[in-house]
Amino acid sequence: MGKDQRVKFEPYHEPAYNSSIYMINSVFVPTWQSHLEFVTARDFIESRIVNEHLTTPLDATSEQPPLFDGTTRLYVSYTCPFAQRVWILRNYKGLHDKIKLVPIDLQNRPAWYKEKVYHKNLVPALEHNGKIIGESLDLIKYVDSNFEGPSLHPNDPVKKEFAEELITYSDTFNKIVFTSFKGDTVKEAGPAFDHLENALHKFNDGPFFLGHELSLVDIAYIPFVERFQAFLSGVWNYDITAGRPKLTKWIEEVNKIDAYKPTKTDPKVIVELYSSLFLAKH
Ligand SMILES: N[C@@H](CCC(=O)N[C@@H](CS)C(=O)NCC(=O)O)C(=O)O
């Protein structure tokens, strides 16, 4: 890719996803209370997701939104997998009204972001109760325990230990796969996906890592598996689901989650971006 050509960062809108802009369940059903007894907590949360128009990312020319005025803000980039973790959780817990999404253009970043908001100059960052918090894995735990809605972190000690182990492993997983892009990709990346496949066998009431309910573990992995699947298939013709039935089912179920759909990046953009990052000739 030439120096002046930039990948256009747009949130992915699935063609089958029937709306012109980022619509989730198209309408809030006013009679939900009468149906409440028939729906699970998950259905209930997803039914509360309101239509959300994603705004244009703020760039070097944009004014800073007021800081610490009582609004809770989640600073993201629409294509950042780390930010996507927190974005999915915020959607899943139905926190659209409680946590305002503030997209940042990382290619043309506003100076005030580093100077006034987050000194590390990274996304995601959460502005809450007069402080700024970063680091996506810490943030998903923070949002889960400091905001309303059912917890996505287990109480059961066995599940809790397994969850912590897998959340910690997510950094290793990412490192193995990202490193493989510069080496013998399929051979080096394969064992990382086998690790996920084996982990998904642990609780047989799946399809998720801790059983039948989505948890923070799934949320930690979703954005990265999304990108790796697109890139490995698009460039190496490597299907990460081949011979991995649990991972196949996990991806299938994850893709049904309304809270996740508007956070997805177009696979073509992933292939283009990752090709420019990892396949550049030196
Ligand atoms: N460890 C951080 C990583 C965050 C991160 O690397 N974000 C990238 C975007 S995906 C970023 O802000 N990059 C800007 C930069 O490196 O200057 C987390 O988990 O939140």
From TrEMBL:
Q: Which InterPro entries match?
A: Glutathione-S-Trfase_C-like (IPR010987), Glutathione-S-Trfase_C_sf (IPR036282), Glutathione_S-Trfase (IPR040079), Glutathione_S-Trfase_N (IPR004045), GST_omega (IPR005442), GSTL1/2/3 (IPR044629), Thioredoxin-like_sf (IPR036249)
- Determine the domain of life of the protein's source: Eukaryota
The EC number(s) attached to this protein equal: 2.5.1.18
Name a GO CC annotation attached to this entry.
cytoplasm
Instruction: Cite the GO molecular-function annotations of the record.
Output: glutathione dehydrogenase (ascorbate) activity; glutathione transferase activity
Indicate whether GTP-binding appears among the record's keywords.
no
Q: The GST N-terminal domain covers which part of the protein?
A: 70-151
Start and end residues of each GST C-terminal domain: 144-277
What are the UniProt keywords, alphabetically?
A: Detoxification, Oxidoreductase
PROSITE patterns reported in the protein's UniProt record: GST_CTER, GST_NTER
User: Does the keyword Transcription feature in the UniProt annotation?
Assistant: no
Q: Which reaction does it catalyse?
A: RX + glutathione = an S-substituted glutathione + a halide anion + H(+)
PANTHER family linked to this entry: GLUTATHIONE S-TRANSFERASE L1, GLUTATHIONE S-TRANSFERASE L1-RELATED
Which family does the similarity line name?
Belongs to the GST superfamily. Lambda family.
The entry's protein name is glutathione transferase
